[in-house]
Task: inverse folding
């Protein structure tokens, strides 16, 4: 039995990841901003070993409280899933600083600060996997349509941070992965997504499970395909 910690576990891909991991018989520490409003997540409490913890990853005090609640425990797999897209009308000519800062805060700074805070727990675990849900939209080589300035830049910056993390932690046998979940039919991805959350989550978990040290620092899609930076 492994112990996972998943951020943003109350909906979409995070919720489905939690559901599938529990079904495999593992333990999950599932974080979200408002556990009292996470109806579907709370219904999973009898599906396995689930601990729902309040944590807004954008708030340092919440991260500190999460660290305190985990005292004496370990994490085998850390999945940084929580993220935001930003305003849909943030197109060239209508860009503004504060919304852009918020996207960078939640999609880049928050997961990196959380990972830094939780690193001792991962090092003490057996799995030693840290996965980040990035996006193909963060690929500079793949950008052929433009737009989505806030989301694209945040994910591109996150990818660079993950690459550095992988290099810095390779001697400690940590596997750090940048993962593309696919275009998923979720609240963020919209109704026209190509795959459902079950397909995405199953693929992501398979990539994580099969990852070896040489995969650390790589940009990988849910179906195992490598994505150009």
Result:
């Amino acid at each position: 039995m492994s112990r996972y910690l998943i951020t943003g576990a109350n909906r979409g891909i995070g919720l489905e990841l939690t559901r599938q991991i529990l079904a495999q018989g593992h333990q999950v520490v599932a974080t979200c901003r408002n556990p009292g409003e996470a109806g579907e997540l709370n219904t999973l409490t009898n599906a396995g070993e689930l601990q729902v913890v309040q944590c807004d990853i954008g708030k340092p005090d919440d991260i500190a409280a999460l660290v305190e609640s985990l005292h004496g425990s370990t994490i085998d797999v850390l999945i940084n899933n929580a993220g935001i897209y930003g305003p849909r009308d943030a197109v060239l000519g209508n860009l503004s600083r504060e919304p852009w800062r918020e996207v960078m805060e939640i999609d880049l700074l928050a997961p990196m600060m959380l990972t830094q805070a939780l690193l001792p727990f991962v090092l003490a675990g057996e799995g030693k996997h840290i996965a980040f849900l990035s996006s193909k939209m963060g690929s500079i080589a793949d950008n052929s349509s433009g737009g989505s300035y806030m989301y694209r830049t945040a994910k591109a910056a996150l990818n660079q941070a993950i690459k550095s993390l992988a290099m810095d932690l390779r001697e400690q046998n940590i596997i750090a992965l940048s993962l593309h979940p696919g275009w998923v039919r979720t609240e963020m991805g919209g109704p026209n997504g190509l795959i459902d959350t079950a397909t995405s989550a199953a693929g992501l978990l398979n990539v994580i499970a099969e990852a070896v040290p040489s995969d650390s620092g790589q940009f990988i899609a849910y179906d195992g395909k490598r994505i150009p930076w």
Q: What stands out?
A: Strands lie at 3-6, 27-32, 49-54, 77-80, 129-133, 175-180, 219-221. The chain has a mean pLDDT of 95. Residues 97-124 form the longest helix (28 residues). The CA atoms of residues 33 and 55 lie 5 Å apart.
